[in-house]
């Protein structure tokens, strides 16, 4: 099955008809670091988006929500280093101005240019730098990786992927780039994700597919996609593959869905793995739950426990922390029935200590990826969440963020 | 007004008719540290309790809930170093046995002896050590502070208080001791609190007053009293002051309520101040909220933000972290109306940056107590929450907890 989806390079510019470019325009204190980028399609795209549900959304989020009402977009302009949040009327004007400048640069209607910002909250955007930067950006179809780099903040590395597969016998592509590293608490990190494809799709169906894909990927990592001020996930589909537009009835709809799921899950895991100060990726799989909501609650609760995250950092199979987080999660459980496994090692049997090999458990905990499996033995529902460990690096990174 | 409530020594043994004692029985690895204690009244007490709502409650919590159905108790036996949680049938039998042993030692019915445990989850209690320890405990009316010490785990110091005041012209006392330090996330720490008084009270009224006092104190610190496996708050009222039992209609009911509020708030703040690795106490006061639920949501959200906690540790007035936490809290707000103050320094005005003196803000942030005030300008409701900063000490403490 795997060769149905082949990895290719260039992430967001991998699909036909997408170009990107990035510059260092001086928003970030280090003038050598790229902090402004444009991603554009040669033709208007069917577009879908999911955004933060914060009550203090950033200005660019308000712009995206408005412009996406038409279900179309052709480009997005993104800056890092400044979140354009808590910036009032001026901030909103600046977001619209940023979109307008990029539209002029690209020669397309401003309503087709979305925008995003990420970085420090509460400062106005340096519009002169942005204006000069937009003018200086050169777009090309092999600059997807530059785009992926320019959107980063405290990330230690870019997160990008593109898959190639077939729809109606045509070779098509789906690419994505994302950022986000402030990981420990779900409502703080800014997560930005840009997905592009040359597949033709119907807008309403695309929006629903994006919502579902985000629910199982970005909303299952320890950055709760719906809670930060700037969180944004956009999908632009320019249709240049020329297939019959996909909808629920299309026989190959599931194939696109699978590609989308693979791309979003990959990118979500990469965000978790690159959490601020993180040294380990944690995967929590809950099965046997009474229903899906319970499975999600339980899985997320484990990834969100700083005490368990610390134990993970220390390679300490202190499963009592898992039990406490599970009990506090609010999921339905029978305290005398659930099992817990650290990797393949069963540490809890029917709610109490299982007889296990401590050395084996420590060996599993020492790896850079650790999987926790919880079987609630109450039903058939399951869910997977991803997180990371909590280390001194996180503290260092956030103690003096604005200085 | 203050002299109506005078501080006196000996915490839980300050009220007449209460005795306590503690020993080091060897549950903790350091054999010199007290880890087993008994608190007892000379006569049966009207008793009230609030407990964790975790789905994996510890065995002693199950015992307390059962025994408190009668609304009476005379003593409590507590061990630290072992939580007796996730210990199944054997754990439950051990909790009842612990109560029975203490009852035999005191010569009172076992149903009047409550018990608590705190420490590592998932290990059976060492019952032989506990049995020998209970036999060895000597009770006296001046050992309240020994009791306060023996219930500690990762706490750096005891938290205890006693107030003396008048009811019906009689001098009465209310004392309390508490523990809890795993502070950063609300559903993890074990918080134990024992309150004693010689005031006569009606049981139903006492239970309701305790619930209300806990809601405004322990449930407003960054240890969510209703979410850990072992959280317990008990109040024993032996009535030896001889007053007409207090109920809602008693003219001095409010006076007792005020004393109870002062004691629980003091103890809650002390827990927050002594959070694992904490160097600073944070007080968050939210006013102008549409309703009480919103005020609580907003205040707690700020204390629970690890990013803001890190900024607090570094003395960095990075108020964007407060805005993000506020927006994510789910409280109703108008993004163009709220104000934020760090100490007396207004840093946010109508949802955006206020012109403030950076040096003044940094000076406030450098203190060991920092108060954040948020005015939502939407109504009359208010709430106060307490928390602490997040430092390397927290990571160190929890990385290798079971080793």
Automatic annotation (TrEMBL), chains A, B:
Pathway recorded for this protein: Amino-acid biosynthesis; L-arginine biosynthesis; N(2)-acetyl-L-ornithine from L-glutamate: step 1/4; Amino-acid biosynthesis; L-arginine biosynthesis; L-ornithine and N-acetyl-L-glutamate from L-glutamate and N(2)-acetyl-L-ornithine (cyclic): step 1/1
BP GO annotations: L-arginine biosynthetic process; ornithine biosynthetic process
Name of the featured protein: Arginine biosynthesis bifunctional protein ArgJ
Cited function: Catalyzes two activities which are involved in the cyclic version of arginine biosynthesis: the synthesis of N-acetylglutamate from glutamate and acetyl-CoA as the acetyl donor, and of ornithine by transacetylation between N(2)-acetylornithine and glutamate.
Entry EC number(s): 2.3.1.35, 2.3.1.1
Keywords: Acyltransferase, Amino-acid biosynthesis, Arginine biosynthesis, Autocatalytic cleavage, Cytoplasm, Multifunctional enzyme, Transferase
Binding site residues for substrate: 153, 179, 190, 276, 398
Entries under NCBIfam families matching the protein: ArgJ, PRK05388.1
Family statement: Belongs to the ArgJ family.
Superkingdom of the source species: Bacteria
Compartments where found: Cytoplasm
Catalytic reaction equation(s): L-glutamate + acetyl-CoA = N-acetyl-L-glutamate + CoA + H(+); N(2)-acetyl-L-ornithine + L-glutamate = N-acetyl-L-glutamate + L-ornithine
Cellular compartments per GO CC: cytoplasm
Pfam families to which the protein is assigned, alphabetical: ArgJ (PF01960)
Gene3D superfamilies xrefs: ArgJ beta chain, C-terminal domain (3.10.20.340), L-amino peptidase D-ALA esterase/amidase (3.60.70.12)
Site note Involved in the stabilization of negative charge on the oxyanion by the formation of the oxyanion hole, residues: 118-119
Catalytic residue list: 190
A GO MF label: L-glutamate N-acetyltransferase activity
Organism expressing this protein natively: Thermogemmatispora aurantia
Annotated positions for site Cleavage: 189-190
Subunit structure and binding partners: Heterotetramer of two alpha and two beta chains.
């Amino acid at each position: 099955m795997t060769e149905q989806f082949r990895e290719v390079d260039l992430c967001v510019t991998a699909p036909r008809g997408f170009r990107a470019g990035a510059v260092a325009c001086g928003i970030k204190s280090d003038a050598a670091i790229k902090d402004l980028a444009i991603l554009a399609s040669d033709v208007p795209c069917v577009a879908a988006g999911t955004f933060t549900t914060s009550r203090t959304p950033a200005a660019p989020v308000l712009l995206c929500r408005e412009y996406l009402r038409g279900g179309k977009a052709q480009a997005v302009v993104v800056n890092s280093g400044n979140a354009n949040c808590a910036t009032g009327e001026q901030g909103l004007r600046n977001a619209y101005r940023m979109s307008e400048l990029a539209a002029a640069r690209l020669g397309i209607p401003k309503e087709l240019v979305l925008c995003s910002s990420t970085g420090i909250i509460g400062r106005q955007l340096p519009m002169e730098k942005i204006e000069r930067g937009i003018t200086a950006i050169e777009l090309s179809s092999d600059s997807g990786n530059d785009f992926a780099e320019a959107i980063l903040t405290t990330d230690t590395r870019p997160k990008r992927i593109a898959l190639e597969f077939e729809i109606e016998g045509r070779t098509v592509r789906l690419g994505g780039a994302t950022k986000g590293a402030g990981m420990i608490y779900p409502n703080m990190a800014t997560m930005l994700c840009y997905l592009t494809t040359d597949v033709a799709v119907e807008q309403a169906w695309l929006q629903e597919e994006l919502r579902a894909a985000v629910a199982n990927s970005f909303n299952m990592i320890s950055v709760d996609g719906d809670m930060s001020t700037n969180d944004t996930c956009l999908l632009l589909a320019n249709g240049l593959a020329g297939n019959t537009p996909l909808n629920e009835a299309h026989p190959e709809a599931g194939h696109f869905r699978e590609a989308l799921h693979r791309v979003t899950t990959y990118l979500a895991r990469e965000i978790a793995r690159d959490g601020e100060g993180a040294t380990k990726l944690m995967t929590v799989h809950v099965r046997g739950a009474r229903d899906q909501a319970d499975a999600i609650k339980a899985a997320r609760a484990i990834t969100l426990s700083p005490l368990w995250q610390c134990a993970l950092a220390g390679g300490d199979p202190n499963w009592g922390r898992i039990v406490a987080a599970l009990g506090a999660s609010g999921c339905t459980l029978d305290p005398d029935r659930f099992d817990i496994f650290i990797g393949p090692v069963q540490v809890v049997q029917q709610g109490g200590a299982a007889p296990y090999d401590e050395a084996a458990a420590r060996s599993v905990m020492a790896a850079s990826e650790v999987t926790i499996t919880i079987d609630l033995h109450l039903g058939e529902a399951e869910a997977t969440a991803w997180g990371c460990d909590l280390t001194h690096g996180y503290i260092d990174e956030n103690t003096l963020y604005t200085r």
